[in-house]
Amino acid sequence: MRIALWVQDIFPVLRQALGDREQIISNTSLATAVMLASLEIISPTAFGYDIPWQRHLNLARDLMWRRLADLRRTALGLEEDRICAFLWSWFAYLDVLGSLSGGMPDESSSRFRLLEYITHDTGDDMYEIDCIMGFTTRCVQILAQIAELARVCDEQRLGLGGPPPSAWTPGPVFVQRAHQLEQELMDSMSQPSPLCKHIQSVEGKDRQEMVLMNEAFHWAGLVHLRRRVLGKPPGHEGVQGPVKRIVACLECIRPGGSAETGFLFPMFTAGCNALDEGQRGKILERFKSVESNGMTQVHKARELMEHVWVSGQAWEPLLCTEFVG
């Protein structure tokens, strides 16, 4: 209740800032919106209001778009740029994984989604592993495009009045774009991926885990492309191959560490498409390890994954308020 009282005046202020086209969006306003979305994901209804994380994220997305536009037309100083770069990484992680988790953007935001990721330049190598996201800027650019493509295909594949999901086939435009993104993922994965400059010193095992996490997010992107856009069945080698690679990466991650917590999205992706009981058992064990941290979205994702195993259904139509990340 204390949090609810604290934030009750924040939402109108953020909306007012967004509505005033002359007002420059501050890093403070942007940080507040991103933080509110994060808190709603890990602790729903913490504000005392039943506002889904998708709405918080839509507000953060609109503010981010305005903030990036302000930075391009004003000279606000290097420190402001650095702060915005940090907030961009935090937001990009939430936005891309939220979109891949079924968080539908509103129409006014979706037009700018790809532009945000492609035009914002933090000054870092796009193949550096971002210490906030756990994967490279290039990877998040590709995942953003996969999310948009998967959203459109999901609407066709699962929409009312259409063919059964198993009978759906993508149009030639989707197939061509999916194959392009497949190649981009493989090219990105083949690049050397040094850690970002914010990390001054890191132990060898920690470095290895960050590289493995980056690799696993690439493989997860391939699974989403092949299942949700190309319509391949779960037993297809093009799906099971990446699933095996994700599990192999997971096996090299230490239980109970921060890397394991950041592995939720690849784990969920592999788990929902794993057919081997041994693989499922390994993934479930790791889910329960991460779940002990107390974050609500982990528990919901684990329940959804187990429902997929029992029902044999795809996970997308079963989604409600889950955020997988």
Helix content: 55-70%
Strand % is: under 5%
**Could you tell me the mean pLDDT?**
78
Q: Would you report the number of β strands? A: 0
Keywords: Nucleus
Subcellular location: Nucleus
Protein name: C6 zinc finger protein
GO molecular function: DNA-binding transcription factor activity; transcription cis-regulatory region binding
Could you please describe the fold and organization of this structure?
It is found in: Nucleus. Keywords: Nucleus. InterPro entries: Fun_TF. This protein has 325 residues and is mostly helical. The chain has a domain at 124-318. Helix content is 66%, strand content 0%. The protein is built from 15 helices and no strands. It has helices at residues 2-7, 10-19, 27-42, 53-73, 78-100, 107-110, 113-119, 137-158, 172-190, 204-229, 237-251, 258-261, 264-273, 277-291, 296-311. α3 runs antiparallel to α4, α8 (137-158) runs parallel beside α10 and α10 crosses α13 (264-273). The longest helix is centred in the middle third of the chain and has 26 residues, at 204-229. It is globular. The two termini are 26 Å apart.
Entry summary:
The protein is 66% helix and 0% strand. The protein contains 15 helices and no strands. α9 packs antiparallel against α10 (204-229) and α13 (264-273) runs parallel beside α15.
SSE layout and pairings?
Blueprint: H1 2-7, H2 10-19, H3 27-42, H4 53-73, H5 78-100, H6 107-110, H7 113-119, H8 137-158, H9 172-190, H10 204-229, H11 237-251, H12 258-261, H13 264-273, H14 277-291, H15 296-311
Helix pairs in contact: 3-4, 3-5, 4-5, 5-8, 7-8, 8-9, 8-10, 9-10, 10-11, 10-13, 11-13, 13-14, 13-15, 14-15
